[in-house]
Design a protein that fits this description.
alpha+beta, Nucleoside Triphosphate Pyrophosphohydrolase, 4-stranded mixed sheet, 3-stranded antiparallel sheet, 2 helices, 9 strands, 35% strand, globular
Length: 133
């Protein structure tokens, strides 16, 4: 088993709140996104994952790197870390839960206890930059 899970995530903020998702069968909230398939670029993987999870079409030219975060992976043995490379991007279409997504919510730093460890780091980072409440 690998000691690091490499994932991509989309940061989408509206009215100082961050879009978050909860997967079916999970309790903690995460950011939309996922893992690359072999040979897939970050832009291609993010575009594919957001289409699958949220039914939106990412505008590839608008994809911008935000930051990379590392934390204990939720629900994994101690020491298994997740590396979350985060991007912003514009999109077309209406955001709707699809695929393995059970719920979409808008969160801020007051929702800390609902979030995965890496999402807590991201919330702190966004709050420290006055991007969310």
């Amino acid at each position: 088993m690998t000691d690091e899970i490499d994932k991509l995530a989309w940061i989408h903020i509206k009215e100082k709140q961050l879009l978050s998702t909860r997967s079916k069968g999970k309790e903690a909230y995460y950011l939309p996104g996922g893992k690359r398939e072999p040979g897939e670029s970050d832009a291609a993987a993010l575009t594919r994952e957001l289409k699958e999870e949220l039914t939106i079409d990412v505008m590839p030219a608008s994809i911008r790197y935000v930051e990379t975060f590392k934390a204990q992976a939720d629900g994994k043995p101690a020491g298994v870390m997740v590396k979350m490379t985060c991007y912003e991007a514009e999109f077309a279409g209406e955001i709707a839960a699809a695929s393995e997504i059970a719920e979409l919510i808008w969160i801020d730093s007051n929702d800390y206890e609902k979030c995965s460890p890496v999402l807590r780091l991201i919330l702190d980072w966004l709050r420290d930059r006055d991007l969310i409440v």
